[in-house]
Specification:
332 residues; mainly alpha; two-stranded antiparallel sheet; globular; membrane
Length: 332
């Protein structure tokens, strides 16, 4: 094996670790080259969306299920920490993790009966759940503030160091995103992840091989709900204001589109999908006015021409071309 081949083999063998290292380095250095508060605000929003999409991709891409209700868990995390810190005057950090535990319990109670369903029935059930939560946030004025929203959440802080600027919040929110990324990468490489992959391929075959399919679906559903709850709490403390419109059924649909566009079953694709769909309205003004139509069109095009998602589809095409080129070279 030549030195060049050894280098390529080393990179291939440690590609995940190198990818995480380079991504972490880019995140750490980004504020040094771009300190515009508006730009940092957008990248922070991408990080918040990425946390939700990472968890949702575990449920959709690896467990092979469908959810159109994760906007509700996002909202429960946001309003839960807002009520705890403003109404009950509790410390932000314990409130955020306490709310995540309550959301996990709620997702468990919801998931046990709902995950008996599959396909379109499961999608409609989760969509109905999101509609109920959104209506509750909208109508319960004396608790949630109703259509006027809820404000006054204090910034997160460690001692006297408050995350009260876009730069400081950048490191906090991307730190959470990296932690969720590492958790997701390790999960899919573990025995649990292989069981989820088998479940996604064929639930009956997975059960025959000894995978507790029902338990696996509930567990990954709860984990994805915790991811969404943490993202909601970060969202509330970042902006200091929340309203029900940020957690409606269209928000849940956008999260599902981010998963599909980035690539179902692709952890890195989750980051790409969250970044692309979050930035599109900023790049082209028409996307802001007709966002739902444009997102729907993107989803249809991706499903028609790259059903694996953009990242997964492009990677598969590159692998195919490299294999064909190697075959031609070997024949020559």
């Amino acid at each position: 094996m030549t030195a060049k081949e050894k280098i390529f083999y080393f990179i291939y063998l440690h590609r995940t670790g190198l990818g995480v290292f380079l991504f972490t380095l880019a995140v750490a250095l980004f504020p040094l080259f771009e300190n515009n508060p508006y730009t940092l605000g957008l990248t922070n929003l991408i990080a918040i969306h990425a946390i939700i999409v990472l968890g949702l991709n575990l449920f959709i891409g690896f467990a092979g299920q469908i959810s159109l209700g994760h906007g509700a868990f996002f909202g429960l995390g946001a309003y839960g920490t807002a009520l705890a810190t403003v109404t009950f005057d509790l410390p932000p950090w314990p409130s955020m993790f306490g709310v995540a535990l309550l959301v996990a319990l709620f997702a468990l109670l919801l998931g046990v009966p709902v995950l008996r369903l599959s396909g379109h029935y499961l999608a409609m059930a989760t969509l109905g759940f999101n509609f109920v939560v959104h209506t509750l946030l909208l109508q319960w004025d004396e608790v949630t503030g109703g259509p006027s929203g809820f404000y006054g959440m204090p910034p997160l802080a460690i001692g006297d160091f408050a995350f009260d600027s876009e730069v400081r919040f950048h490191y906090l929110v991307w730190g959470f995103t990296l932690a969720c990324l590492l958790l997701a990468l390790n999960l899919v490489r573990s025995g649990v992840g292989r069981g989820l992959a088998a479940l996604s391929g064929d639930e009956t075959a997975a059960a025959a091989l000894g995978v507790d399919t029902r338990r696996a679906k509930v567990q990954v559903f709860v984990l994805s709900a915790v991811f969404a709850s943490l993202a909601g709490s970060l969202f509330a403390h970042c902006y200091g204001f929340i309203s029900p419109d940020s957690f409606d059924i269209f928000t849940s649909t956008d999260f599902a589109i981010m998963v599909v566009v980035g690539g179902m079953g692709s952890i890195w694709g989750s980051l790409f999908g969250a970044g692309l769909l979050t930035m599109l309205p900023e790049w082209i003004d028409i996307f802001e006015t007709y966002k739902d139509f444009v997102h729907g069109g993107i989803l249809v095009l991706v499903l028609m021409f790259l059903p694996q998602g953009l990242v997964t589809g492009v990677a598969d095409q590159l692998r195919l071309r490299l294999a064909l080129r190697r075959g031609k070279n070997a024949a020559a």
